[in-house]
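Study this protein:
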Amino acid sequence: MFNIDLRSRVSKIKLFVFDVDGVMTDGGIIYDENGVEYKIFNAKDGQGIVMLTKAGIKTAIITARNSEAVRHRFENLGMTKLYMGQKNKLIAMKEMLNEFKLDFSEAAYMGDDLPDLCVLKEVGFACCPSDAVNEVKSVCHYISSRRGGRGAVREVTDIIYKIQRLSV
């Protein structure tokens, strides 16, 4: 079902980091008349993250934006680490790897756009939704059959869960 290279990469993963807009959401941003931001998250994607966290995989978010909706989602899912307002995502990733005493080969990252390339090029398992930009797709080890915010996260968390034979 999974090729040898994918199995090898995924078997090492101890940390899975996600971008938000276009990965955990469909990329849409809604503002009300007071400028309050709203995002729509996929419940099945969230369940995939919860399952990984409960199985001992550290889960994190690195996003260039600051959003209380993202903070709430992070807390609701019980994720390990949150970096918001990170214009250079590689700096945040290196800081996290150092804190957890991991190297890039033990990290997965899911992104969809150009600001994610710096991390995707370094991690052991780079993945993206099907609607990611072509530059991102060209460096990823796995491209989901699903779009951002529409099950892409769950598809990839399930792959890690199956390959590592995790249990909650």
